Task: structure prediction
Amino acid sequence: MPCLTVGGGSPHAELEPQEHKGFMRQETAEREASERLRGGQRPRSPRGWGLLQALWYLSFYRAVVTEAHLRRRALAFIFIRFSAWQFAGCDRLWAGLVTALCASVRGHFGALPLSVFHVLGARPRFASGFSQREWALKRGLCLKLGALLLALGAGVAALLVALLVPGVAESRVLKVLGSGAATLSGSGLALGAFSILKNVVVSEKQRIERLTNSERFASQLGFMSKVRAEVQALVDFLAFMEVFERRRLRVVLEITGLELCYPEKVAGVLNAVNTLLSDANAPFIFILAVDPSVIVPCLEQTGCMKGMADNGYLYLNRTVTLPFSIPEMGARSRLQLLDAAMQTREDLMYRIITRNVERRRAKGDRGPDTADDADAVRCIHAAFRCLHDGSDPLSRYLPACGTHVRRIVNTIPITLRLLLHRAAGGAVAPRAAAAWVVLADGWPCRLSWALQCAEDAGQSPAGRELGRRSLWSIFEEHAAELGALAQALHNALSLDGDPELFQSFLQRDFPFTARDARILLAVTVNLDHSIRHKMGLLRGLDGLRAAAARVSRGVQCPPPE
Result:
């Protein structure tokens, strides 16, 4: 059962955990049906009566991995979602990964079976030959337990005889032997029960956290070996439960949020996947939902690239055993993403908005804000209807990233309400306002450049006729200047989407004019104005350099007398 590391990378798409869980559960059902048709044994669960069976096998039997077990098609998945940003504040992010793994497996099977395995369990072994026996009696444990019980019974019997039988009560030797045998054997049994109880109370997660919280954490030479031992015990327990449940088990660990962590922590998580959890027989499937354009620079900033020529892509290729990139979303998927984002905002759902307006009209509430609210509701609904319309060109420009879609959904109502508040709602249609929000979210750098150039041109004497010019013509006129400043604006330019889509957006589908931009800029809340201010500073510095160069040429080459 090899460990598998799946890397899902895309700068525009997100993995849908519920979707791939559904596919995996469907695969589980199909495999179990196929196993029953083959005449295989029915899978069992360690719950109810099965829990007592599991505890009995855990205590007195050792699992044997047979050839028949390896050919079983029945499969079950244990899903674990690890969001790295939740552990970004801890000193060792990879320790959070291991504790999440231990806690999830413990929660799935229960504390008691795992505790009994820690105390009495044995690592499963492979069968010799083609034997079909899946359980081997622990003869050594049975002999030890029988000896302890025999010693306890003999000690208690000798003690009762010494205390109750007349004529023997005066024998101190029998009392000492009986009490000693009963005490030693009873203490051995009590110690085993106490160990099980201790493992029930103190989980693997707590033990690892106790080690990481120690003041001597940085100097503990045996820390990694202790964590590795905990993980190995977990792997052995899963192998045991595979034989008991009569099906293969796979732990699916989805790692997300690495882009939000510091570079050292990103490298720590990947090292944990490589060193702690990549056992050849480990039943783990790691799904790394990352954006390589963010993760690769993080890796190249750390010291884990030694010997790889500081190549983060090479490190990812050696870590991920099944790479795939999510293709760009289609129109239907984008609309589904928009619907999912709107479900998080109940105030934006049309039915709820309409119901609230009708309720207020029925009550006769005609306060000063009623008309404004009704107009805002009508405009918001019209804007989102354009986004939902697959035939509308605006839907083509919806981003494929869930975070950006949620930003658009949250920004459109604010923009429309600000337009109505400024009495500019009649000058700009709801569809145009929604398009402006999408434009500011998808191309913040190029839009800021066009706005800054329009602002600078409007301050010149010839700027009176600027309001009728299209925003695209202004951008196109100064595109070469933007290319000259590409190095200084590299980080801002990396925020923009496809340049060809930006051109088709402003040139064909939504030809905003400089006047439209001036009205909408006053209510734009999803555009970082510091980008535009930086562009203005750079243009001013270029103007000073050009003036200085002209003065320098005039001094060097004075006009002839």
